[in-house]
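User: I'm putting together a small comparison set for a docking exercise, and I want a reference complex before I start. The sequence is below, and the ligand is adenosine-5'-diphosphate. Could you produce the 3D structure with the ligand included, as structure tokens?
Assistant: Of course. I'll restate your input first, then give the structure tokens for the complex.
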Amino acid sequence: MSSKNKSEEIRNKNDLFEIEKEKIYLDKKDKENLSYAEKRHKENTATFNTIMTIIKLPYILGYKLPKTIISKITFKSTREAQQKEIARLKRLNDSKERARNSNVLKELEFIEAFKNIGFKDKLNKYPVFNGLEIIGDRETISFKSNLSLTEWISKKEQLETVLNTNIVSVRQGENKQIVDLDTTKNKLPKLLNWDDDYLINDGIFPIGKDIFGNIVKFEFIYIANILVGGAPRGGKTKLFQLLSYQILKTGGKLIIAEFKGVDYQKFENKCQVINDHQELLKALKDLRKEMEKRKKLFRNVGAENIDDYNQKTGSNLKRYYLLIDELGEAMEIVNPDLDKKTKDNIEKDIAELCKSGARLYSAFGIHFVFGTQRPDVRVIEGQTRDQFIGRICFKAVKNTSNIVLESDIASNLNSDDKGRAYIKIGADYKEVQVFLFNDDMLKNLKNKKLTKNDLKIVGAEKENTFDEKEIETIDIDID
Ligand SMILES: Nc1ncnc2c1ncn2[C@@H]1O[C@H](COP(=O)(O)OP(=O)(O)O)[C@@H](O)[C@H]1O
Ligand SMILES: [Mg+2]
């Protein structure tokens, strides 16, 4: 290549460079364009923000601002502190409750209580806490020991004091060593008035309430006969009157025997009221006849008992009840006009008929309710007594309570608590407040139809000879 050619070439490159240079560097105009665009963008953003602020203004003024102000003036921080304190106290309470219910603490508490009253077995061991179950108002505390159920029951009063609760029932637990105590802080009322709203049906008689306010009833279909024990003034006669009223009100047939001759005067025109031993003997014989009559009826239709018979035949055969208030007086005649032999015979016959009646009549719907303050063998012998499944005892001496309830539990009752009694249910006992019956309610009952018996002349012995008249039967039904 020549040198001229070479310089030519260089010059051309410089030109080319000049030309290309225009394309690489921004010129003044480009710079102006950029800054203009940037400025526009800033302006647009500002406008957008302003619009957004204007749009948000109601939210800020209507909600955010007032919320901040209100929070401030309503002690938000104080409230938060309080909430924290509540949560802390709750945790504290829970843990204390857990501690209280923990077996360790309970065990110590109970051993302390048993020590106080020296309640221990022959090896000087105190009962051991075995568990606690709480259902509503009832706390069932379970203990393991070598003490018998009877020992627990006889200490009931003292246990109630040291455990600071009411023991409602003492039951054998899952084995012979375990005893369950049903306890409650509830109290029995001192007085419960009878009200006709409690009435149920013939044969099912509400007599009072237990400590939980449940109605306690006597159901003759299960208990056959009732033995009522208790020292004078406890409430036996009032209970007899309550039962008498319910029997009559529900259409049952009632014979009352009472030898004082004063307690049932108001019943005299409502049912048969007996004040005389020969009359009682006659009534017992009449009941035997009624039983024989019913036996035939039942056999005809293959019925096993009165309810079965009524169901099978669609009839409404009524139950009979013989109530003897103060059985001791029924079993021992004090009458200077009768010679010893006659007295002995009547006494023997009454005892015999009571014995067979208690055993045989109840299936036929003929029931006995006997009351006594001393239910020993001279008054009612063991075999006869066994036929009285219903047992209730008001405040009584130990001996009476033991015979009626097979426990001295009723001797612990307070003699000021009138109408307060224990009933026996299987091997268990229930304290009840018996409804107080008001004589005025007798006006709600119809008067009885007069029978020959009512026209009897006092002293006309012939009228009283046995086997003459029969009591009303199913043929001559109630009013
Ligand atoms: N269920 C009762 N509720 C309240 N008081 C009663 C109740 N039963 C009896 N009383 C009171 O006790 C007294 C004696 O009762 P009562 O039935 O005559 O005893 P008892 O026949 O056992 O000797 C009654 O006059 C009455 O004031
Ligand atoms: Mg009485």
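Residues 191, 230, 232-238, 394, 418-419, 434, 436 surround adenosine-5'-diphosphate (ligand 1) (CB under 6 Å). The first strand starts at residue 128 and ends at 135.
User: Thanks, that's exactly what I needed.
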